[in-house]
Specification:
Layout (H helix, E strand, L loop, with lengths): L2 E7 L2 E6 L4 E5 L15 H24 L6 E10 L7 E11 L4 H15 L1 H9 L1 E8 L2 E4 L2
Helix pairs in contact: 1-2, 1-3
Length: about 140
C-alpha cells in the first residue's frame, strides 16, 4: 500500500493512492497559517477513514450473513482534540445510522465484529484516545442501551 501527497500551493495538498487516483484536496481553514479551507483537514480525513474502515466491514459481514442490507447507512464521527500542541485526538465518538428492514441482533453482531476484530483503524484509535460508538437503527438507539 502506498499513497502520495503533493503540495499545490499555500497550505493546499493533493492526496493520491498507488493507482494514481486523486483522492482529496487537503487544506486547513486557519488564515493565519495561510489556509483557505479549500479541502479537508488531515484530522477530518482521519475521522472519515475510521468511518470508512468500519463501514466497509459492516456491509461485508452483513453480506456474508445473508441478511437484508440497510437501505440507508451513514456514520457520523465526532472528535475532540487537546487544547495545546500537538492537538491530538483525546476523544472520538462514532455514530452508526442504519435504516431498513434489519435484523438488529445480526446488525449488532456485524458491528461488534468490526469493532473488536476487523477494523484496523479502530484498533489504532483505541490505543490513542477514548473511543466509543453508538448504533441507531431506523431512528432508534439500539446500542448501548
Amino acid at each position: 500500500m502506498q499513497v502520495a501527497v503533493r503540495w499545490k500551493e499555500k497550505m493546499q495538498f493533493e492526496a493520491s493512492n498507488d493507482s494514481n487516483d486523486a483522492i482529496a484536496d487537503i487544506d486547513i481553514s486557519d488564515p493565519a497559517l495561510e489556509g483557505e479551507g479549500k479541502g479537508q483537514s488531515p484530522k477530518q480525513m482521519f475521522l472519515q477513514a475510521l468511518a470508512g474502515c468500519t463501514g466497509m466491514d459492516v456491509i461485508y459481514i452483513l453480506k456474508r450473513m445473508h441478511v437484508n442490507l440497510p437501505t440507508k447507512f451513514w456514520m457520523e464521527v465526532h472528535g475532540e482534540t487537546a487544547e495545546t500542541d500537538p492537538k491530538v485526538f483525546t476523544k472520538i465518538e462514532l455514530f452508526y445510522h442504519l435504516n431498513g428492514p434489519m435484523e438488529e441482533d445480526k446488525l449488532l453482531r456485524a458491528i461488534e465484529m468490526s469493532q473488536k476484530t476487523y477494523c484496523s483503524l479502530g484498533a489504532m484509535v483505541k490505543r490513542i484516545c477514548d473511543y466509543s460508538y453508538e448504533v441507531h437503527c431506523n431512528g432508534k438507539k439500539i446500542f448501548p442501551v
